Amino acid sequence: MKVYVGVESYTDEDGHTSPHIVHWSDGRRFEIQKILDERQAVCIGAGGRGMRYTCLINGRKRFLFLEGSRWFVDAAKN
Fold first, then answer.
1. pTM of the predicted model, to two decimals?
2. Of residues 17, 10, 19, the one with CA closest to residue 63
């Protein structure tokens, strides 16, 4: 299930975007401790394609996708 989330990110002068904090609609915030990988990928479980960030959040590996200008997670896997 694709769930759109708010993300605080930084875009540098070269246009490279790095997410830092994920905001759920219920008000919870999760700080991204580290970005382990980033690549173009398809989200098989929820559908959609975009930049996939493999993030370390609360000590666990999670996938965060940037699809156009919107961020989402696959809630079935996160």
1. 0.88
2. 19
Residue 7 pLDDT exceeds 70: yes
pLDDT recorded at residue 77: 54
Mean pLDDT score of the chain, rounded to an integer?
91
Going from N- to C-terminal start, the domains of the chain cover: 2-74
Instruction: Write the secondary structure of 20-50 as one string of H (helix), E (strand) and C (coil).
Output: EEEECCCCCEEEEEEEEEEEEEECCCCCCEE
**What are the distances in angstroms from CA 11 to CA 16, 18, 19, 72?**
5, 6, 9, 18
CA distances from 56 to 12, 20, 71 (A): 21, 11, 16
